[in-house]
Design goal:
Length: 142
């Protein structure tokens, strides 16, 4: 299953993780992420030899995980993903001018605030004064 050529940079063994979890292939010391395909004989991974990978495919962890339908060994490189984009056109939308909802804007006086802000000290003083006035009116009523 390993595609072998004379040049070290052309050794390839594509393995796809078809499960939802990370898979560790212990005998070659490699981690495969969910739904990803990697070339385990890529020249960047110099610690792997074609013989070691072929042994794993024949009787090791790759075979065991393939039998459990968690890994898939590929004969050829996967096709590159095509970036899918939608083109926007200048089409008109006839219903956009009309709306099914009527928006009504209401004015609430209690939400009107003065544009001038008072400091914390002034706010405390006004609150104390209004509380004292309320207390005096309650005492006067009794």
């Amino acid at each position: 299953m390993v595609i072998v050529s004379k040049n070290r940079k052309n050794y390839h063994c594509w393995i796809t993780n078809i499960s939802k979890m990370n898979i560790v292939v212990d005998d070659i010391g490699y981690v495969l992420y969910p739904y990803k395909t990697k070339d385990v004989l890529d020249y960047m991974y110099s610690h792997l030899t074609p013989e070691k990978v072929q042994k794993s495919i024949d009787s090791g962890d790759i075979k065991r995980l393939s039998d459990k339908n968690m890994l898939l060994v590929r004969q050829s490189a996967p096709e590159a993903e095509i970036e899918r984009t939608l083109e926007m056109t200048k089409a008109s939308f006839p219903n956009k001018a009309r709306s099914l909802l009527e928006l009504e804007e209401k004015h609430y006086q209690e939400l009107d605030f003065d544009s001038t802000f008072v400091s914390d000290e002034e706010f405390v003083e006004k609150t104390i004064e209004s509380a004292q006035d309320d207390r005096k009116s309650i005492i006067d009523q009794e």
